[in-house]
Amino acid sequence: MSIDTALKKTPLYNKHLEAGARMVPFAGWSMPVQYTGIIEEHLHTRSRASLFDICHMSEFFVKGPSAEKDVDALVTCCIDGLGVGKCRYGFLLNNDGVIIDDMIVFKITPEEFMIVGNSGTRKKDSEWIRTHLSQGSDLFDDSNNIAKIDLQGPRSMEVMRFLAGDPVIRGLGRFSFARTRLTGINTMVSRTGYTGENGYEIFLPAAEAGKLWDVLTRGDSVKPAGLGARDSLRLEIGYSLYGHDIDDTHTPAEAGLMRFVHLEKEFIGRERLLKQLRKGIKSVLTGFICSGRRSAREHYRVTSRGREVGVVTSGAFSPCLKRGIGLCYVDKDAAGEGKDVVLINEKIEINAKLKTPPFLKTGN
Amino acid sequence: MVPEELKYTKEHEWVKIDGETALIGITDHAQSELGDITFIELPVQAKQVKRGESVATVESVKAASDVYSPISGEIVEVNGLLEDAPETINLSPYENGWIFQIKISDGGEVETMMDAAAYEEYLGTL
């Protein structure tokens, strides 16, 4: 028996090498962390537009007469009443109410849904979903055949208007999606993203990914950006990253993400979540902004008047604010807007204030 | 290309000897590996340091890295410009991005450092 430990390559792998990207292992994939520099790519996304290779993420399809009912019972967001061509952000919870994964659910038809989840959670997501579907629907994991390219930034709207003749795509509202042909390629374009900017997530056949990538990066306004910029961009908005800020040891209530949980319906994990809400949560996810350029990083401890009150789950230098920012879990009684904390590890102490994200107001 | 006139360490610091003092920074290879530098904790002025002692911390978007003094002596000056503009190290690692100046206490230590050719050869082995 041989165990294949080689990193997986996205269909855009060679494009990254040609562009001089620095490749790093990420959730079993070889992914570009940066091309020219993380800060430059970050600022380019905020001022113009960037292209991200997100092919590593998972695309699941639930199909069948009871697809709508089955998906609605699995995810925390409300699917009943969601229009065709609309999508919603939500969570897959287990029976303990903790987060298996976060995802966007796309209603293609009442009998066909696409669920886009993280890459590191692909196996447990698909096993969990498959186990909990009724006889009336089936799960298809099409992640290997589908490429995902994110076009994000204020210029992305005009880029898309230039590429797409289809008036539906030109007028696409937030959390809406549609199938369309872009430069002769069959795609599904969604007005969603992870940067806080206006933009799109484009789904297309893996074999065509390189062609669309080339067309989109041809001009000066769109440049490729790596996972490094993606991380600092999402952090400035306060979006959670699975495996760091949210995971299967925390509920959406602790993560402060109850706005993506529709308690008025039945879903797996609801009972435990309600019980937790009745009893009161002990710790809560919040943001922090450092007093200077130095940022705390993951696993730094959060202290208040010498007492340990929490832990940092994400931290980075904010290229727009030129300060350290991040997310942390803190004890409920220590939380509060503007509270002074000291973030520490073995050697370093950083003064910071707790702040509810977003840290930055953007065009979105 | 690494500048001819400097001395180098395996930890990717460069040293520019000027009489009894030396100017110290990190090499182009080091700044490139670190990526965009976002913060530097500068050495403490007037402090006596030993060779190999961690005297500064450079943080980038990706990692935090210690800067070791390649020479024993007294820190006589630090580059205050870097406090507000640490990216200067990325832009000009061998000139404007110098980190500190030290008064050399043991000239013999300088002799054991790599010259430009040896450092380039060392980079080739990494």
Could you explain how this protein is built, in words?
The complex is a heterodimer of chains A (364) and B (126). Chain A is α+β, with helices and mostly antiparallel strands and 364 residues long. Chain A is 21% helix and 35% strand. Chain A has 3 domains: 140 residues, Gyrase A, domain 2 (2-Layer Sandwich), CATH 3.30.1360; 84 residues, Aminomethyltransferase beta-barrel domains (Alpha-Beta Plaits, 2-Layer Sandwich), CATH 3.30.70; 75 residues, Aminomethyltransferase beta-barrel domains (Elongation Factor Tu (Ef-tu), domain 3), CATH 2.40.30. Chain A has a 6-stranded mixed beta sheet, sandwiched between helices. A 6-stranded antiparallel barrel of chain A has the order 15-18-17-16-19-20. Chain A has a 5-stranded antiparallel beta sheet with strand order 6-7-8-5-9, with helices on one face. Chain B is globular. Chain B has a 6-stranded antiparallel beta sheet. Chain B has a 3-stranded antiparallel beta sheet with strand order 4-6-7. Chain B has a single domain, classed as RNA polymerase II/Efflux pump adaptor protein, barrel-sandwich hybrid domain (OB fold (Dihydrolipoamide Acetyltransferase, E2P)). At the A-B interface, α2 of A face β4 of B.
Quick take:
The complex is a heterodimer of chains A (364) and B (126). Chain A is built from 9 helices and 20 strands.
